[in-house]
Design a protein that fits this description.
Blueprint (H helix, E strand, L loop, with lengths): L1 E5 L9 H7 L3 E6 L7 H17 L3 E4 L5 H8 L6 H19 L4 E4 L9 H15 L2 E2 L8 H10 L11 H7 L1 H4 L6
Parallel strand pairs: 1-2, 1-4, 2-3, 4-5
Helix pairs in contact: 4-5
Length: 183
């Protein structure tokens, strides 16, 4: 199959993308950056992904522009449910691009992370796939979590410490922002 893979970063790609290639699939990677904050973080993730993909002779399509305001508008006053809007935006963009690229299916490296909501990703992926007219390919890539971490460290890849959005960055550093009160 020809599969378009939404790739959120290099480290999350080092397990799922080769696994798909080794299974005989043709892979096109797609870096969608509309939720990644700040801009410098977005650039660093993109550079890391592109360097790895280039070394692997992979095709990567990068989302043009940087419309972080659109993400903020979708998440504002719905911070607890922001992942729904974020998954939807990224998966819909991937499905639409997969259709235009005449891919048989699309998937996401979000399915590699043990921190993501797999059932929700699959539900949204299937829904936007039907809407766009292209199949969503679900595979639980979490089995390669440790292997992917080891590989990305071996390759000396930049490894981010949060999902990407402003809110996940705050959650990542919450203990430093609000240290426990001493009695």
């Amino acid at each position: 199959m020809k599969i378009l893979v939404h790739t959120c970063c290099g480290p999350c790609s080092v397990y799922p993308v080769p696994k798909l290639l080794n299974a005989g699939h043709e892979v096109i990677c797609y870096f969608h950056r509309a939720n990644i904050h700040p801009w410098a973080e977005c650039q660093r993730r993109e550079e890391t992904l592109l360097a790895w993909a280039n070394a692997q002779n992979l095709v990567v399509i990068v989302q043009p522009g940087y419309n972080i305001e659109d993400f903020f508008q979708k998440a504002a006053f719905r911070e607890q449910d922001r992942c729904i809007a974020c998954y939807h935006e990224r998966l819909y963009a991937a499905a639409s691009l997969a259709r235009r690229a005449k891919a048989d299916a699309f998937t996401t490296t979000l399915l590699y992370s043990k921190f993501q909501q797999h059932e929700l990703i699959a539900q949204i992926g299937n829904a936007v796939g039907r809407q766009a007219g292209v199949d969503f390919y679900y595979e639980d890539f979490r089995q390669g979590w440790k292997q992917g971490i080891e590989e990305s460290k071996k390759l000396k890849m930049y490894r981010q410490q949060y999902c990407g959005c402003l809110y996940s960055e705050k959650e990542r550093y919450k203990s430093e922002i609000d240290p426990p009160k001493k009695s």
